[in-house]
Design goal:
- The structure holds 2 protein chains of 2 kinds.
- Helices cover about 60% and strands about 20% of the residues of chain A.
- By secondary structure, chain A is of the alpha+beta class.
- Chain A has a domain of about 30 residues.
- In chain A, strands 1-2 form a two-stranded antiparallel sheet.
- Chain A is rod-shaped, with a radius of gyration of 22 Å.
- By secondary structure, chain B is mainly α.
- Chain B has one domain: Transmembrane di-heme cytochromes, Chain C (Fumarate Reductase Cytochrome B subunit).
- Chain B contains 7 helices and 3 strands; from the N terminus they run ββααααααβα.
- Chain B is elongated and about 60 Å long.
- The chains are: A alpha+beta, B mainly alpha.
């Protein structure tokens, strides 16, 4: 989740930012939302159609 | 604090069957902000994806533009517009749950017609506001690390650990914006929401769209 680096003088690892490997996961989260909403909207539409 | 409705006319009606939804100023704001956001995302993520170019200057200038736009938007929303249209009220939470339940149950009570913005749009606005403010605040701090026409860089303002958290927060909020933009574009392209997308270009919706989709007590037009 985070990127760390070690000083050239040694010592503890230092936090330097977020890991950019997460970028694809954020994109997947957006696509997953779209798919879930499409399914829910289709489900809702078919229920309404049956109801009428 | 009251929900937006009742005694105050907040929409702008037009006699020719059009209901003004977004003024020219608001549309210009929206599209300039969209341009700034896309430039910011391009100049931040394309180098990470392997497209190398001199991105720093374009990035911080676009970031300052975005910060100014957001500041103008906040002042305008608080002073000249009815900010209560975008607040999440208990009735919005109720309608989100009603909408969810109605998806799976035919006998459930459907959500009430919304005012100018529906509960999910308000929720989206809140999420975007959190992420955009996070990238702007951390981004302005990060500008202390670069030379600009106004100041010379000074990376010693914060300790290394603090810089690490500032960079981490900036990155996480920027990546979260990718999710938000995918969701935004999806809703903008949905046929049932497309009348709203059109209104972001031409400024108005038809009187029929207004009556079909909105509660005229909460959004008077």
């Amino acid at each position: 989740m985070f990127r760390y680096s070690k000083s050239i003088y040694g010592g503890q690892e230092q936090l330097i930012g977020a890991s950019f490997d997460l970028l694809s996961w954020f994109a997947v989260a957006g696509i997953a939302f779209v798919i879930v909403h499409l399914v829910a909207a289709a489900l809702s539409k078919s229920r309404n159609r049956i109801g009428h | 604090m009251n929900e937006p409705n009742k005694n105050k006319s907040t929409g702008e009606g037009a006699s020719d069957g059009k209901v003004i939804r977004h003024t020219l100023f608001d549309r210009l704001y929206h599209w300039t902000m969209a341009l700034a956001v896309f430039v910011l995302m391009g100049t931040s993520f394309l180098p990470i994806l392997g497209f190398k170019f001199q991105w720093v200057d374009i990035h911080w200038i676009s970031g300052v533009l975005l910060a100014v736009l957001i500041l103008v938007h906040i002042v305008r929303a608080m002073v000249w517009q009815d900010w209560r249209h975008m607040m999440i009220w208990p009735s919005d939470i109720r309608d989100i749950f009603r909408g969810l339940i109605a998806t799976f149950s035919r006998s459930a009570t459907p959500p009430a017609r919304p005012g100018k913005y529906n509960p999910l749009q308000k929720l989206y606005h809140l999420g975007s506001a959190v992420f955009v403010l996070a990238v702007i605040i951390t981004g302005l701090m990060m500008m202390l690390k670069i030379d600009t026409p106004i100041w010379r860089r000074n990376p010693y303002v914060f300790a290394n650990t603090t810089w690490g958290w500032i960079y981490a927060l900036h990155g996480l909020a920027a990546m979260a914006m990718v999710t938000m933009i995918i969701i935004h574009v999806y809703f903008a392209l949905r046929p049932d929401e497309f009348y709203l997308t059109k209104s972001m270009f031409r400024g108005w919706i038809t009187r029929k769209e207004y009556k079909d989709h909105h509660d005229d007590q909460q959004w008077k037009a």
